[in-house]
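Ticket 4471: requesting a sanity check on a complex prediction with zinc ion. Repro inputs:
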Amino acid sequence: MSAIMNRIKGKLVVSCQAYPGDPLEDTETIRRVASAAVRGGAAGLRLNGVKDIAAVRRDTGLPIIGINKKYWNDQLRITPDFASAAEVAHAGADIIALDCTNRAWPAGDPWQEMIARIHSELKLLVMADIATLAEALNAAAAGADMVGMTLNGYTEETSSSRGFSWPLLHDLVKQANRPVIAEGHISTPDEARRAIARGAWSVVVGSAITRPGVITAGFVQAMERPAPSGSAVAIDIGSTYIKSGLVDRAGEVSLADRFLTRASGGRDAIAAGASLAIQSALTLARERGIDPIGLGIATGGAIDARDGTVFGATDNLPGWAGFDLRGFAVDRFHLPTCVNNDAHAAALAELHFGMGRGVSDFVAITIGTGVGGGIVSGGKLMRGRLGFAGSFGHHTIRFDGRPCNCGRRGCLEAYVSTASLIHEYRELSGQLLNPNAEDAESALKISQLASAGDPCAVEAYSILAGYLGEAAANLFNILDPEIILISGGLVEGHPHFAAQVEDRVTNLIHFGAKRRPRIQMSAAGQFTGLQGAAASVFEAHDEALR
Ligand SMILES: [Zn+2]
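Returned structure tokens:
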């Protein structure tokens, strides 16, 4: 008897049944559906009724789980008496499945008695169709050879259960002491694979494979579902300005405004500015009758992805480290709130509204006073455990190289940034520019010189492109993205920069000519941070509805 069990171990059993009134309710049709399932690789079949079982038995030697559905006053019961079990046994079933729930059934035989008689008189295996752990334990005690989750969700006690019950599978695998057959609401190949991985003996799939009417209805319903709607309030906290606005599902930004960050005032001043920016956008939105679905925040600094606190920040935002930014915003505005660092927000903006739309694997690099990064893998932003994923400004491209403000040496950020552009230009030209100017001002000047064809400025950019090329080659080797998008004030207006980086990467990586690494300038504009912050709100909102 265990030979039959072993043939379905770890495998797919396909249930081929038509329901009363279904156009497929016809033995020849069921025979053909079963035959198609067998050709597809099914290891066993579950079939209802003498006629269907006998017809399919003539075609195949695969194990058949036979049932005999009977109705009594509109109520259905699976193989409710010994006579119906004997019928399907004679038709050719190898395993008899029967209802072993606690539900009362006025006609028929007690299932405990049936299990014993199927074993002794029919010499067949018994699959106990149950809805709960307690029922499975009773069935196992009565001698059932395996337990099937078939009836979970169909008894009064389990009527609140929607979809496949993973907790019940877990409990049964642990406690039933019998092979557990995962059956009922398994609707995707991935769920079937997971059920086996979590200890199911085999998986029975019915409707998702053999009922075209049900499959079609699923498509129709999904297509009729209204497109997600709603707008989010977003703010983007930088060291000079806090931008605010309302962002819709298409990434359109309206009611945009900006406020001074007043970073020199420390945490309280920055927080007050953020609060003002949020309040302003929220008030304007509500005046127009728009009720935002949430609040998205992009900010400089490292953000703890678990709770939206500021993990750390540079001197550009003094006192910002350690601030419970999400808690602060939720307390004041009572909106679902998502906090992102600005580089992650940029990657989200590309993914949802920019050049990353429809690209499942890409990397977004932002170059300015430092280097920020966001990795999108499999269509999802990779945040990492604490939210630090994508911090490749601090990956080493020169062992024991230039000191970096993170304390290490040779980081990418020490070679590609505003300060390093100034450094390279100074080395090449011997000019100091205006020594009293801010870095940003000097970098802007070099950018303008490069655009005008000044050889030293052009060369400074090409040196930076060489360094970035090494870093990008590392990223292509580690992450295998389709494209790397570059953005940031430092490289804006320099389309050749991306082409230089691309050439460098092509020469550096294995099979570069074949792999054709693509590096492109992002088309992102001034509202990227707002769009990315809003995108995180939309993602969280849609995830909660799923
Ligand atoms: Zn560093």
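Notes from triage: Residues 455-479 form the longest helix (25 residues). Leaving this open until the requester confirms.
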